[in-house]
Amino acid sequence: MRVLYHLTLSPFAxxxxxxxxxxxxxxxxxxxxxxxxxxxxxxxxxxxxxPVLIExxxxxxxxxxxxxEYLDEAYREKILIGINPVDRAEVRRLNAWFDxxxxxxxxxxxxxxxxxxxxxxxxxxxxQAIRAxxxxxxxxxxxxxxxxxxxxxxxxxxxxxxxxxxxxxxSSLDYLGDVPWDAHEPAKEWYARIKSRPxxxxxxxxxVPGLPPPGHYTDLDF
Length: 222
What we know:
Helix content is about 55%, strand content about 5%. The chain is of the alpha+beta class. The protein has a domain at about 85-195: Up-down Bundle (Glutathione S-transferase Yfyf (Class Pi), Chain A, domain 2). Helix 4 packs antiparallel against helix 5 (about 125-150), helix 4 (about 85-120) runs parallel beside helix 6 (about 160-175) and helix 5 packs across helix 7 (about 185-195).
């Protein structure tokens, strides 16, 4: 059986979960408390980060980009990284935008400060970082709106890894109630389409003990 080591609110683990579901690949999940730095897990990924995917034949894959690139090459029934070089270049550009730029400017400042510091017992959240995260988020929502007002999906005519990457980041923030959807209607409409996809159902069913999501989190129509 295919096994995915994950952390519930990790946008990178969520991204791999959605890719696996879009490709109709069965898998089980193992919650990995990365701050514990278990030797058994470090043997799988010396970086000590999720996601880590173990294929049915025992192949160990670590690192979000490596995993999703492998999955798109190995399971070709549904292509998520573009069908030609130009499409692939745009998908990868946007993938980096959300996984690197948005993650650094927003997710690390909100999810990282509010949740990961608490888990790892790394002190109190930095209020200045949280303010920066809130201040940067509208810029990324506006960019999503800019794209979907000109394209059917973020990277073009087809649903792709770019949509999955952005939605994975936003879903983790939305669980915390940090996304000002009502001020960004085009991004909100795009995200509603993502929420309606069967591959997203498990994400919407996530629950962190002691921290319930806001009421709209599971509402497909907000």
